[in-house]
Design a protein that fits this description.
about 100 residues, alpha+beta, about 25% helix, 4Fe-4S ferredoxin-type domain-containing protein
Length: about 100
Amino acid sequence: MSGIMDVGRGPAKPILGDPCNGCGYCCAMEACALAREYISADIPGPCPALEFEGGRLRCGLVRRPSLYMRLPNEWADALLGSLFAQMLGVGKGCDAEDPGRA
């Protein structure tokens, strides 16, 4: 099953700097700059591109951008997904502040 889900369905948030585990906390707190630019500038709350699959929450703009924006070619999905992953620092570790810590 795949689709937009609430962050409570994913694993617990890792400590800031630890490897990402797909908890979705960062995207559930607010939409990133890419989502605000390519989906809508007025996104309140969780990112609409937050997708749940295989017990993890993932970025839809990285996985399949064509679902969220108009792309001119089929091959643009892979190209943009890779570029967006790089821009977001996917695989670099958790970058969301821990809840309750400033």
